[in-house]
Amino acid sequence: MNLIQELRWRGMIQDIMPGTEEQLNKEMTSAYIGFDPTADSLHIGSLVPILLLVHLQKAGHKPFALVGGATGMVGDPSGKSEERNLLSEEVLKRNQEGVKKQLMQYLDFDPARPNSAEMVNNYDWFKDFTFLHFIRDVGKHITVNYMMSKDSVKKRLEGDSGMSFTEFTYQLVQGFDFYWLYKNKNCKLQMGGSDQWGNIVTGTELIRRKDGGEAFAFTCPLITKADGGKFGKTEKGNVWLDPQKTTPYQFYQFWLNASDEDAEKWIKIFTFLTKDAIDILIHEHKMNPASRTLQKTLALEITVFVHGKEELEKALETTEKLFANQNAPAESLSVDDLEQMEGVIKSIYEKNKIEAGIDIVSFLAETGIFPSKGEARKMVQGGGVSINRKKAGTADINIDAAFLLHKKYILVQKGKKNYYLVEAI
RNA sequence: GGGCAAGUAGCCAAGUGGCCAACGGCAACAGACUGUAAAUCUGUCCUCUUCGGAGUUCGGUGGUUCGAAUCCAUCCUUGCCCA
User: Fold this and answer.
1) How far, in Å, is the CA of A415 from the C1' of nucleotide B54?
2) How far is the C-alpha of A243 from the C-alpha of A68, rounded, in Å?
């Protein structure tokens, strides 16, 4: 199976330019994907492009990861209904560093390999590119008519919020990236999310018009959820790749909670398991959906890929303790069990206040588990809070020393899945 | 510079003097059912609250009025048309 066939059955190809497959079969091809430094960490949405690069490298081609130091300053209008706010230069700089560090861990940068990965930053070639040179060398080759026919632009022109010249120019800036890489790194292929198609095509067009060169492209579909919700969001917001922002446990849980339908799609995209292996898993899962084979495998594979084996072990352990024996009383958990739970949010509380007794609502608010007493009360009354695995049905429960596990901990659940460990000091 | 239209909660979107913390939808969170799914049903969803209420909102400011998201003035922002 060649690279394109492989990616096709995985459902990772949306649009593809004619000739791309032939080019990849012909020779080792350099290809790139751009990552915009809109935050100081990548989130799981960026995982798909990363995986594309990994697949590419596995197939013997040379991947380039481009950090959009320059494009990040402009703002990509694709998929945005409104003009975006510009990020300050310090923020961008910090983000670039963060993104760069993360990309480093997923690709093989060993220069001994003929197809070692490379990291580039488009800020490097844009910082000294003057406006005049830009409009002469780049702008001259692309007509405004062409630019306006792009979906990202058309939507904004038809909509009622307009579009600034800055964002309008974005596709040229990104297009020039491709040209630059083509010229200087012999890069002939660009990949990206399907929302990038327009921008990518501007690049191939620029290469053709400026140099008469031929360049290729394909995009992957944007990841969606079967229920129409946004992919990669949880109560706490984005699911990040940075373990400081999303702990490996939370990360693991995110994948474990995938619906059957999504899991079947995602396991192809987010793991490197072979077609045969996946077919078997899907079959097994259908025989016995309750065992959640697909979700478990998916979560396991992807957590190892992103955080490593060791972190996965910890995540599994915590999961085991918290969910395997849901009915086991909290008292059965050892001190070690409690202390080593990773991904459980910990907070501290004054011991003497507990010993004196305190109403549950104040307790929940003061430990920071809920932002206010009002919210804590509502959630308790709605049956959404458990203390030491026992549902707190009314707001008049009094927390006292009897609630302390091992004389120092209280395990609080907000909903079924959000655990908090309060330590009394 | 001139004319027209618009700006309401995270988003979409009603409301056009009192019954407005503001219809409805989406998203989000929780409960029931389940498989730590999905679908469905229920509740919450501006802030705080001793759950009785209290406080701050409808682009900004100033005004009219007993009373304004709603009327007037002015400014800002956006779109469309003309120059």
Assistant:
1) 29
2) 23
C-alpha count within 13 angstroms, C-beta hemisphere, residue A373: 9
Nearest CA among A77, A72, A74 for reference residue A100: A72
C-alpha A163/C-alpha A66 separation (Å) is: 26
Instruction: Establish whether the CB of A289 is closer than 7 Å to any nucleic acid atom in strand B.
Output: yes
Any strand B atom closer than 7 Å to A71 CB: no
Q: What is the number of other CB atoms lying within 10 angstroms of the CB of residue A195?
A: 17
- The CA–C1' separation of A377 and B11, in angstroms, is 28
- pLDDT digit string, tens, across residues A79-101: 666 666 667 778 888 889 999 99
Query: What does the alpha-carbon distance between residue A167 and residue A189 come to, in Å, rounded to a whole number?
Result: 24
Residue A353 has which token pair? 């206040």
pTM of the entire predicted model = 0.88
Rounded CA gap, A205 and A212, in Å? 9
Find residue A233's DSSP bridge partners. Answer: A238
| CB A38 within 7 Å, strand B | no
